[in-house]
């Protein structure tokens, strides 16, 4: 064999650099184990709550334990409305619940998508166009730390009551973070990646789409996930005040009517939704960023 | 020989100027011809500007003085005809090995099937033929450097430049990589310019060794190494050459060290 081939043999992949994904059965095993621990954790939490109630330490009117707030689901569902209407009393049933969840989810998704795309565009301009950076960066740095909630009145002044102010608030939650992350991440792209692209003849747009963008995508996704929960908080506030429909409106209704059962039922829904959103985003991340996905295989 | 040199440098200099500070002369008065298919090593103390010279030949940096030509044509921009390999492989982690090697071909709009074929062949040639769909992260440092070679070779370069490509590798892997490099050189017929501060590496590989002075870097001397290949580090002539280079470098290293100490 040639010396090149001889060099191939004794160079194993260093341990730890390439975690092999678990095979079928053991992977199933891992999933079942995670589910088991999850069920146990939630079970313990609910059990403790129930035990405190049973011991008479909790007032069921203020803090009704799960078996009470899940007791009359049909009655609870009456508060959810199918249409996206302001302040209407619902008709009851599962469909209105799903519609309410759908409206809220739509606002979060559209707001995040706009914030992400807009943030990347502005972040790229901040990095590449000096005049733009000089003119815009100070303002961005001034506006970025303002809590999205403080934008709520502005959103209502400008957009009125409806979907747009909620979407706008979610947009604001993500936009500044993504813009600043994009700008910082582009600056941190290894110089030699760009040198390789230049030597191989890539022009500006090719270099951005095929080298810079994939290089910064992991950082952008991290920022997106970190701001996901903030986006969920903000959309509920916006719905309670400026939209008049959606899960936030239901929570607001529950508060003003002193309905603990509805409050905890809605909180449970919100918790499951937030978890599902984060999980879904992780799945997208694992597919799109296959090269850094834990245990992801090389296509 | 009547053929044009692969690379021709005349009076090349580089001065780093930054506002508010006195300009630093990194290189001055470099005259050098590198023949087609020649293996040249740049040897010099740290900071002598030998890597800067490499980047200027690659077209990534502009010279402050003098002319640089490749095959008689002035160098104004980077070109895949003059491949450059860095100390770290700089493979794109988001591409599989075969896609990394095919990157330049895809920029050149080669058909997907064709470029996969070429890239697979190049990877086979560097001994990574069974790693096509691996991620760069799954490879050892030596393997990554060989993949970087394959990526440069896929563009059929006339000149292959390497900026201390083995400095980050362990000693055993380095020795293997030197064998591998000589084979690549013979197969491709390209000129190779290798920057190193390892005297052993220079003596083991080069047709000619260009020794640089400390800053500002000038060509101190050019030493032909006419030992037959493969070269045996225990050969007395190998030893003699190594001692010769050690003497040549000693002064320059001392000077560079004093300069660094002085800040």
Description:
The complex is a heterodimer of chains A (299) and B (263). Chain A has 299 residues and is mostly helical. Chain A has a single domain (71-288), classed as Orthogonal Bundle (MetI-like fold), CATH 1.10.3720.10. In chain A, 72% of the residues lie in helices and 0% in strands. Chain A is built from 12 helices and no strands. In chain A, helix 5 (94-128) packs across helix 6. Chain B has 263 residues and is α/β, with parallel strands linked by helices. Chain B has 2 domains: 20-71 and 168-249, Rossmann fold; 93-157. In chain B, the strands form 2 sheets. In chain B, strands 6-7-8-3-9-10 form a 6-stranded mixed beta sheet, with helices on both faces. In chain B, a hairpin with a 2-residue loop joins strand 4 (65-70) and strand 5 (73-74). The longest helix of chain B is centred in the last third of the chain and has 27 residues, at 236-262. Chain B is globular, with a radius of gyration of 19 Å. The termini of chain B are far apart. The mean pLDDT of chain B is 90. Classes of the chains: A mainly alpha (299), B alpha/beta (263). At the A-B interface, helix 1, helix 9 and helix 10 of A face strand 6, helix 3, helix 5 and helix 6 of B. Chain B: This is ABC transporter ATP-binding protein. Chain B: Keywords: ATP-binding, Nucleotide-binding, Transport. Chain B: It comes from Methylobacterium variabile.
């Amino acid at each position: 064999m040639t010396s090149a081939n001889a060099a191939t043999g004794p160079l194993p992949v260093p341990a730890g650099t390439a975690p092999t994904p678990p095979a079928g059965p053991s992977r199933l095993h891992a999933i079942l184990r995670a589910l088991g621990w999850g069920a146990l954790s939630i079970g313990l939490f609910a059990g403790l709550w129930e035990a405190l109630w049973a011991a008479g330490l909790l007032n069921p009117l203020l803090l009704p334990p799960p078996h009470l707030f899940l007791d009359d689901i049909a009655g609870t569902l009456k508060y959810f409305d199918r249409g996206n209407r302001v302040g209407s009393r619902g008709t009851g049933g599962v469909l209105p619940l799903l519609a309410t969840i759908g409206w809220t989810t739509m606002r979060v998704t559209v707001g995040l998508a706009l914030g992400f795309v807009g943030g990347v565009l502005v972040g790229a301009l901040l990095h590449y166009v000096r005049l733009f950076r000089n003119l815009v960066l100070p303002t961005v740095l001034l506006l970025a730390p303002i809590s999205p909630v403080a934008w709520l009145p502005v959103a209502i002044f400008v957009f009125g009551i409806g979907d747009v102010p909620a979407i706008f608030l979610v947009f604001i939650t993500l936009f500044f973070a993504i813009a600043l992350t994009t700008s910082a991440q582009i600056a941190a792209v290894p110089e030699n990646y760009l040198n390789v692209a230049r030597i191989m003849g890539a022009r500006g747009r090719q270099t951005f789409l095929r080298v810079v963008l994939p290089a910064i995508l992991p950082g952008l996704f991290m920022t997106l996930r970190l701001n996901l929960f903030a986006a969920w908080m903000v959309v509920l506030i916006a719905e309670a005040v400026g939209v008049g429909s959606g899960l936030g409106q239901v929570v607001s209704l529950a508060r003003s009517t002193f309905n603990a059962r509805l409050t905890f039922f809605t909180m449970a829904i919100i918790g499951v939704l937030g978890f599902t959103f984060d999980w879904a985003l992780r799945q997208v991340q694992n597919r799109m960023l296959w090269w850094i996905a834990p245990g992801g295989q090389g296509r | 020989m009547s053929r044009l040199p692969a690379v021709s440098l005349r009076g090349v200099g580089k001065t780093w100027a930054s506002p508010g500070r006195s300009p630093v002369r990194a290189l001055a008065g470099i005259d050098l011809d590198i023949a087609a298919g020649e293996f040249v090593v740049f040897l010099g103390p740290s900071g002598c500007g030998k890597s800067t010279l490499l980047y200027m030949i690659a077209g990534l940096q502009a010279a402050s003085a003098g002319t640089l030509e490749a095959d008689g044509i002035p160098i104004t921009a980077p070109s895949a005809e003059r491949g450059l390999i860095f100390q770290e492989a700089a493979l794109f982690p988001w591409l599989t090995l075969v896609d990394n090697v095919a990157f330049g071909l895809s920029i050149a709009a080669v058909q997907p099937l064709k470029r996969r074929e070429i890239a697979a062949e190049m990877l086979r040639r560097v001994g990574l033929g069974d790693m096509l769909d691996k991620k760069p992260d799954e490879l050892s440092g030596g393997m990554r450097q060989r993949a970087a070679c394959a990526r440069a070779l896929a563009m059929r370069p006339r000149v292959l430049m390497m900026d201390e490509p083995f400095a980050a590798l362990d000693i055993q892997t380095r020795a293997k990589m030197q064998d591998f490099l000589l084979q690549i050189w013979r197969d491709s017929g390209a000129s190779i310019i290798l920057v190193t501060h390892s005297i052993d590496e220079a003596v083991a590989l080069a047709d000619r060794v260009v020794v640089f002075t400390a800053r500002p870097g000038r060509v101190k001397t050019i030493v032909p190494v006419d030992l037959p290949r493969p070269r045996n580090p225990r050969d007395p002539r190998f030893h003699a050459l190594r001692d010769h280079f050690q003497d040549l470098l000693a002064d320059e290293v001392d000077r560079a060290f004093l300069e660094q100490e002085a800040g």
